[in-house]
Prior knowledge:
Elements: E1 2-5, E2 18-22, E3 25-28, E4 35-39, E5 42-45, H1 57-74, H2 79-91, E6 95-96, E7 100-102, E8 105-111, E9 119-123, E10 131-134, E11 145-152, E12 158-165, E13 171-177, E14 183-191, E15 196-198, E16 204-209, E17 227-232, E18 241-245, E19 252-258, E20 264-271, E21 277-283, E22 291-295, E23 302-308, E24 311-316, E25 324-329, E26 338-341, E27 347-354, E28 357-364, E29 367-373, E30 379-383, E31 390-393, E32 402-409, E33 412-420, E34 425-431, E35 441-449, E36 455-463, E37 474-477, H3 492-499, E38 503-507, H4 517-521, H5 529-544, E39 553-558, H6 560-571, E40 578-582, H7 601-604, H8 610-619, E41 633-639, H9 648-660, E42 667-672, H10 683-700
Parallel strand pairs: 37-38, 37-39, 39-40, 40-41, 41-42
Antiparallel strand pairs: 1-4, 2-3, 4-5, 6-8, 7-8, 8-9, 9-10, 11-12, 12-13, 13-14, 15-16, 16-17, 17-18, 19-20, 20-21, 21-22, 23-24, 24-25, 25-26, 27-28, 28-29, 29-30, 31-32, 32-33, 33-34, 35-36, 36-38
Helix pairs in contact: 2-10
Amino acid sequence: xxxxxxxxxxxxxxxxxxxxxxxxxxxxxxxxxxxxxxxxxxxxxxxxxxxxxxxxxxxxxxxxxxxxxxxxxxxxxxxxxxxxxxxxxxxxxxxxxxxxxxxxxxxxxxxxxxxxxxxxxxxxxxxxxxxxxxxxxxxxxxxxxxxxxxxxxxxxxxxxxxxxxxxxxxxxxxxxxxxxxxxxxxxxxxxxxxxxxxxxxxxxxxxxxxxxxxxxxxxxxxxxxxxxxxxxxxxxxxxxxxxxxxxxxxxxxxxxxxxxxxxxxxxxxxxxxxxxxxxxxxxxxxxxxxxxxxxxxxxxxxxxxxxxxxxxxxxxxxxxxxxxxxxxxxxxxxxxxxxxxxxxxxxxxxxxxxxxxxxxxxxxxxxxxxxxxxxxxxxxxxxxxxxxxxxxxxxxxxxxxxxxxxxxxxxxxxxxxxxxxxxxxxxxxxxxxxxxxxxxxxxxxxxxxxxxxxxxxxxxxxxxxxxxxxxxxxxxxxxxxxxxxxxxxxxxxxxxxxxxxxxxxxxxxxxxxxxxxxxxxxxxxxxxxxxxxxxxxxxxxxxxxxxxxxxxxxxxxxxxxxxxxxxxxxxxxxxxxxxxxxxxxxxxxxxxxxxxxxxxxxxxxxxxxxxxxxxxxxxxxxxxxxxxxxxxxxxxxxxxxxxxxxxxxxxxxxxxxxxxxxxxxxxxxxxxxxxxxxxxxxxxxxxxxxxxxxxxxxxxxxxx
Length: 704
């Protein structure tokens, strides 16, 4: 791919000029440079390339002016304060996680309601609240430092934990003595570490890290060629040894785990965000043992479940697109893969090994079904769940006879159950007390037909008794990518939206994993348009069935979902009344240039390949804005320290959409400070952002 800058333009202040866009609106001037790139003979203009230098005075002035405009707009919405009050009121409830056994004790998180970060507690008994073990709120005065990783030794005596600041994916790891609370001298500096895997004797651990970027380029520098290291406690990080590396491809990434018995280190290598991976292993009983290949081709996904000595169990989609459980003796001269749990009609989402049994988590039309099997694959029982929703957890060791799981849905706050693996009895352990009545709301699942005839599921939630006359304000949410399924879950903000009379709909479009590998593949790379067609069809279904109308329908999505909203907005601006693209991937010809963007080629394709560039360019949100089009009210949201989806994606897109807007609806961008892609965002910032979003919808969807 050949790029050429046609001219250099002197940097000017973006505040010198303003341009009228629509009645009563003036947007900050964004300079247009004469930057044009050549992609396979196609000339692609990139006038806002200068915004990729996010720290420059020009970009910072533009950000300041945009936030000033957006904030002044929010101040014209009197309902926003009441929305914020109600969000705060509902958010103020005790949130407790399911306990996890650490050595002979239990650890769990608790938030008293409005704490910016949840606090870790440790206890000797599940019937005793115990004491504070670690409080992330003390890491920073404003709550923008968060716990981003956790790994205890098998005996629970040492704890490795990661700290991320301002929402960054770059994590600093520290080591603590669990009993005394004292920190060891061993610290891993900020990097995209892939977690810590301890040796059984606590003498050290394995971890992954990338080469350090140049100082000042941490936000945007591409991350390539990671390596797996071993760190021996008490020694300098500079002496850590490389255990495994792949110099054949910079987009390969590897991570590993130590088996529960401490005898094996299992390494997984994949390319980009593909679920297809290789497997290698190392015998830890012999210090100088080699790393041995087990699966050398990346043609299927393999997830480690557990082991009995040299017999390893994996969840895989090899010859089973919806997943199955298999085993293999890694020391056998002729390795024979045995099917333990065959493929079912539902998608096998994951498997845990507890009480020497397998807990299989299935997706049936995007909601959870749990089945228990013995070690020979014989069905023991189903776990009865309260209804249509999502169940997760079932953590523990292979010898444990108890476990915990959490169930939630769009109208059901998280409820934790204690599960007896021997008897199959579920017992209520903790139930969140949110100040609303779940029985006032209903959740249903519908199926609609996409453009090519594909049957697609969608969840719809709203107040009971809501009249379907086409007048209801509605949020249609979607993601559609990276094998990630959209399953029912609880959110305080959605309850507030439904209290306001709104409908909340989630479309399980292609690109996710709701129906296995094929469902993902039919919404990826050259078939990405299917994802957009599915989402458009969901909007048409809601309108045709009188849930809402064009002027009352808002679309929402974040990250890959932000791309979804941006692409669909260009293709069908007439279909929606508002759009909420968050932290989106908007420049589909340059996404590979920043941070981990190159890893996304498995989902999006490679702009360096002519056929894939053609598809990428055809839907790229930034490049398909049509000047003079009447776009609906749009609120772009991003954060200044997002080092996963580089914020310049949203900057360039917002500037282009403001310049192209031919209607009267506002096009605004909200740029959060000291925040990243979303993980670890303080509660206070989350509430403020949601109040702004719902205030924006209240005004632009004509709500009363």
